[in-house]
Design brief:
Blueprint lengths: L1 H6 L3 H7 L2 H17 L2 H16 L2 H53 L6 H15 L2 H8 L3 H11 L1 H47 L2 H6 L3 H53 L5 H23 L1 H20 L16 E8 L9 E8 L4 E5 L6 H8 L6 E7 L2 E2 L5 H4 L3 E4 L10 H5 L7 H10 L3 H5 L18 H13 L5 E5 L7 H16 L3 E5 L11 E6 L2 E7 H13 L16
Parallel strand pairs: 3-8, 3-9, 6-7, 7-8
Antiparallel strand pairs: 1-2, 1-4, 4-5, 9-10
Helix pairs in contact: 3-5, 4-5, 4-12, 5-6, 5-13, 6-13, 7-12, 8-9, 8-12, 9-11, 9-12, 9-13, 11-12, 17-19
């Protein structure tokens, strides 16, 4: 009962428990293979002690054929357990890959520092260990006592010698675990940090090159890289030292076993066949322990990967796929919302309360650094550390199935993120491309005619992250993606930052069209001209709502504040909003 509870402690161990039959089958094949490993020993005994003594060719033929048959069965058992472990590893990957992808994505979204590629690297490391020599050593190690028992049957002193060397090898394995675990983990962490630092900076390679920052970046990366090399050197030196000691012990054991057997033969306590057989048997008995020592570093890496993956899946469990809700209408409510960022003592947003009826347009104004972009992320449910309530149609946004909510929500971030693929793929959110809906979204963003001028039209590849497009073109495609499929709630963060006059006119036309369809639009902007489309206005300052309400009331309030003598710092930057 305790074993079952152990395997149910996490999603990862529960998934491994699903393959218990496969591991039992591998254990059975390992039993057959290890039992038949005694065949060479028995064959030597028969050849040296019976065949040579009797000079019988028929006996030699019979013993050889029988041994050959046993070798064939042993090879089949070895092949079957290897094949079974490989297929188990593949099925384990198939069972976990989707969950690992979703969990790593959510962890990255929550700014927990998790690298999605690291999570898949951990999964690959676990799979490779389950199909490598290390796992064979763990299956073969329980048979070492049986080989020792056979050694005792040949002669007690040979058994004692085997036990002594087994204890030495086991102590070496324990020593290796105790002294290489921390250095190996430190080295892996340092290498990961150096790689993440470089990868993060290379995303802005154009800026680095244009302003001569590459050398400065290289110097900072070199510091991290040298630290990682030093950590790796410490870990590798320890591992190589232990491996060298293990080889010394193994070669010493082989020679001493042969010498002890020869001494027993001289004393008449053992036959020549027994001497050779004992040497082979002792080598075989200690082979699993020696293999464990050799693969200990892999085991440490696999265990660390298992712990990281277990924590990741526990922190980001799969969402209920059966959760279904009716399509939202777009009514948005915020109650006492506080948004916090790591490393900041003061919250970015403080006690934000807001009610936006469905089918209305809310324009959000405020100076730079007031928390507008953070509010946009809170509204679409992607800011990691939020307290209070964010409700869509009266239901918490975190309670929605994101795959179900996504088509009903449009989001245009301030930093446009497009993905390698065609224009149509990006507008259609990389789902099944519906040409009519793609064209309709492009027309809403005033993009259709421009796309038709590309060589391949909607099938034109935009390059990685939209590198082949201008800033205005990327912003328009992002807008078309946000309105694709007529979502009920659309959040636009500085959508006109890179637009010319024609692009801004197309944006305002798109907002009016969405409003006429009963969609809820939240428009974050620095440009007061957007106020003309607003049903409601919200002004943020220092993360707090300074003014919020219907457009005409807010404008009247601002005009009163403007006409009232007060310190300049108390007046909102948006006081110049035109009526």
């Amino acid at each position: 009962m305790k074993t079952i509870d152990f395997f149910k402690r996490s999603d990862l161990t529960r998934t491994l428990w699903l393959f218990r039959r496969e591991f039992v089958a591998v254990g059975i094949f390992s039993m057959v293979a290890n039992l038949l490993m005694l065949s060479p020993t028995i064959y030597m005994l028969q050849v040296y002690d019976r065949v040579l003594a009797s000079q019988s060719e028929l006996t030699l033929l019979a013993v050889s054929l029988l041994t050959l048959l046993l070798f064939g069965v042993m090879a089949f058992a070895e092949w079957m357990r290897s094949r079974l472990l490989v297929s188990t590893g593949v099925r384990l990957d198939e069972q976990l890959c989707t969950q690992v992808f979703n969990a790593s994505f959510e962890a990255h979204l929550s700014q927990s520092g998790t690298n999605p590629s690291r999570a898949f690297g951990d999964l690959i490391q676990i799979r490779q260990f389950l199909t490598g020599n290390g796992i064979f050593a763990f299956f073969d190690a329980p048979w070492t006592p049986i080989y020792m028992a056979v050694l005792f049957m040949l002669h007690p002193w040979l058994g004692v010698m085997g036990v002594v060397f087994a204890l030495i090898q086991a102590a070496l394995a324990w020593f290796g675990h105790r002294h290489t675990l921390a250095p190996s983990e430190d080295a892996a962490k340092a290498n990961a940090e150096a790689g993440a630092f470089l990868q993060g900076k290379l995303r802005n390679s154009e800026v680095l090159e244009s302003m001569g920052m590459v050398r400065n970046l290289q110097l900072r990366w070199a510091e991290k890289h040298q630290a990682a090399l030093a950590q790796s050197g410490v870990a590798q030196h320890l591992t190589h030292r232990i491996t060298a000691i293990s080889k010394f012990i193994r070669y010493t054991q082989q020679s001493l076993a042969l010498g002890a057997g020869a001494l027993l033969v001289i004393d008449g306590q053992l036959s020549a066949g027994g001497m050779i057989a004992a040497n082979v048997l002792m080598t075989r008995a200690l082979a699993p322990i020696d293999m464990i020592v050799g693969s200990w570093r892999q085991f440490i890496g696999m265990r660390a990967a298992f712990a990281r993956l277990e924590t990741l899946l526990a922190d980001h469990p799969p969402r209920d796929p059966a959760l279904k809700r009716v399509s939202p209408k777009g009514e948005l409510t915020l109650r006492d919302v506080v948004a916090i960022a790591p490393g900041r003592d003061k919250p970015i947003l403080q006690n934000v309360n807001l009610a936006v009826p469905s089918g209305s347009v809310l324009v959000i104004l405020g100076p730079s650094g007031s928390g507008k972009s953070t509010l946009a992320r809170v509204l679409v449910g992607i800011w990691p550390d939020v307290s209070g309530e964010v409700l869509i149609d009266g239901l918490p946004i975190q309670g929605w199935n994101r795959m179900e909510l996504g088509p009903h929500l449009g989001y245009l971030p301030q930093d446009i993120e497009l993905f390698e693929g065609s224009i149509a793929d990006n507008i259609a959110r990389f789902g099944e491309v519906d040409p009519e809906r793609v064209i309709e979204a492009a027309q809403s963003a005033g993009l259709h005619e421009m796309i038709l001028r590309f060589p391949k039209g909607y099938d034109t590849s935009i390059g990685e992250a939209g590198s082949l497009l201008s800033g205005g073109q990327r912003q328009r495609i992002g807008l078309a993606r946000a309105v694709y499929g007529d979502p009920a709630l659309i959040v636009l963060d500085e959508p006109n930052a890179n637009l010319d006059e024609a692009g801004e006119s197309a944006l305002f036309a798109a907002v009016k069209s969405l409003k006429s369809k009963g969609k809820t639009v939240l428009l974050i902007t620095h440009r007061p001209s957007a106020v003309a489309m607003a049903d409601r206005i919200l002004i943020l300052r220092d993360g707090q709502v300074q003014v919020e309400g219907p457009r005409d009331e807010v404008i009247a309030t601002l005009q009163k504040l403007q006409n009232t003598p007060a310190p300049a710092a108390t007046l909102p930057d948006a006081a110049a909003v035109p009526a």
